[in-house]
């Protein structure tokens, strides 16, 4: 099993920056890919960015050039550096990990952290 704990959300003005952290514990070596998702009330959770074990990254179009996803394997933590924030980025941000258990892919979520961007 893998457990995830996010931190780093908060309130920021338009144009500001925040860095989210996601600390992983448990069966770290079984993790295949990690990512950040976000959700606003009444809407589906959407993918923000992903990063593989090899360091390959992928971003949704709306955050390209503004957000940077990274992983520090030494302390089992994933980060999301968010720059040039705007009110449309306001959401609860969740980290996610897909991992293998006996050749079957499972996934888990963190508890979520609120990001609010004021205009």
What is the fold's blueprint, element by element?
Blueprint: E1 2-7, E2 10-13, E3 18-26, E4 31-39, E5 46-52, E6 57-59, E7 67-72, E8 77-82, E9 91-101, E10 104-109, E11 113-118
Parallel strand pairs: 2-11
Antiparallel strand pairs: 1-3, 3-8, 4-5, 4-9, 5-6, 7-8, 9-10, 9-11
**Sequence stretches where pLDDT stays below 50 over 5 or more residues:** none
- Rg over CA atoms, rounded to whole Å, is 14 Å
User: What is the arithmetic mean of pLDDT?
Assistant: 96
**Overall spatial form:** globular
Number of strands: 11
Largest sheet entry? 7 strands, mixed
β-strand percent reads: over 45%
What is the terminal separation in angstroms? 40 Å
Give the SSE string: EEEEEEEEEEE
Q: Number of helix segments?
A: 0
What share of the residues lie within helices?
Answer: under 10%
Structural class: mainly beta
Keywords:
mainly beta, 119 residues, 0% helix
Description of the structure:
With 119 residues, the chain is mainly beta. It is built from no helices and eleven strands. The strands form two sheets. Strands 2, 4, 5, 6, 9, 10 and 11 form a seven-stranded mixed beta sheet that branches. A four-stranded antiparallel beta sheet has the order 1-3-8-7, with no helix packed on it. The N and C termini lie far apart (40 Å).
């Amino acid at each position: 099993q893998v457990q995830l704990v996010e931190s780093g959300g908060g309130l920021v003005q338009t144009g500001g920056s925040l860095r989210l952290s996601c600390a992983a514990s448990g069966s770290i070596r079984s993790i295949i890919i990690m990512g950040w998702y976000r959700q606003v009330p009444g809407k589906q959770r959407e993918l923000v960015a992903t990063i593989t074990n090899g360091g390959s990254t992928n971003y949704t179009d709306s955050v390209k050039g503004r957000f940077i996803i990274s992983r520090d394997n030494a302390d089992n933590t994933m980060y999301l550096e968010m720059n040039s924030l705007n009110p449309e980025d306001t959401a609860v941000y969740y980290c996610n990990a897909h991992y293998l258990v006996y050749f079957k892919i499972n996934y888990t979520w963190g508890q979520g952290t609120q990001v609010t961007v004021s205009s």
